[in-house]
Design brief:
Layout lengths: L1 H5 L13 H12 L1 H15 L9 E4 L14 E4 L8 E2 L12 E7 L8 H11 E12 L3 H9 L27 H8 L1 H7 L3 E9 L3 H5 L13 H11 L3 H4 L2 E8 L2
Helix pairs in contact: 6-7
């Protein structure tokens, strides 16, 4: 009952795979100032690490995002056509020519891709040597594990043996632990499969802000002026982000 009371009225009666959710979530992120501040922080973190290149940057799973406001020339994309994307693509079979991309950026996308191997094979072909894949994804820490398994609607299974997802629903299929599985638990296996990539860094962060924001699915919406306060608290807690971070900024570098 509490979940129904707190659910956002714009999306309350829509299944997670309804294409209408993308445009509705774009409206929600514009209205929820605190949530928009979170995405602005994410975008600035990623932009800080984008290499200079004359080749375009592609964002996968743009959905309700607004990175193009901060990065002119960005190619926005998603599985589903909507007014916020330039091109409809499947991340497992990218339609771009060989070595034609400077970098790929993605926010909360990797853990929804049904076959991550297919994505990395496709990205290896499309991204130039020296390019990067920059992403912000859920991360597995003692605190985040409790939050994701008790308070979040998406699946979170750090013990999953397979990298692939068994579901075939493009928006609701997920294992939030996939990024941690690929780049931490199964790191040596990842490098055996994809030796042309190296991990520049993995930076766990944000133990509180997204949880406080209520995300896209709830009515919870702290005033935007409170975001700097939460952000300051998170900065104080940053030395223990390896134990409490709910997300991670992950940078992969194409080396060959």
């Amino acid at each position: 009952m509490l979940k129904d009371i707190l659910s956002h009225p714009l999306t309350r009666d829509l299944p997670l795979d309804d294409p209408r959710l993308i445009s509705l979530r774009l409206k929600i992120v514009q209205e929820k100032g605190f949530l928009k501040n979170i995405y602005t922080q994410w975008y600035r973190l990623v932009l800080r690490h984008l290499p200079k290149s004359p080749l375009p940057v592609v964002e996968l799973g743009t959905g309700p995002g607004f990175l193009q406001e901060l990065l002119p020339g960005l190619i926005t994309s998603d599985l589903i056509a909507c007014r916020n994307v330039n091109v409809v693509v499947n991340a497992q079979d990218l339609p771009f020519p060989t070595a034609s991309l400077g970098s790929i950026v993605m926010f909360d996308v990797l853990h929804h891709i049904q076959n991550p191997r297919s994505f990395f094979l496709s990205a290896t072909r499309c991204v130039e040597v020296g390019g990067r894949i920059l992403m912000i994804e859920p991360w597995n820490t003692p605190w985040s594990h409790w939050v994701y398994t008790h308070l979040h609607h998406e699946n979170f299974e750090p013990t999953a043996e397979a990298w692939e997802l068994s579901a075939t629903k493009p928006l609701s299929q997920a294992n939030g632990a996939i990024p941690w599985i690929l780049f931490s638990r199964d790191r040596s296996r990842f490098f055996l499969d994809f030796p042309t990539w190296q991990i520049d860094f993995i930076q766990p962060f944000m133990p509180l802000a997204y949880l406080v924001s209520g995300g896209f699915t709830t009515l919870l919406s702290p005033p935007s002026w409170s975001y700097p306060i939460i952000h300051a608290i998170e900065n104080v807690l940053s030395p223990i982000n390896h134990s409490i971070g709910m997300f991670a900024l992950i940078c992969l570098h194409r080396i060959d």
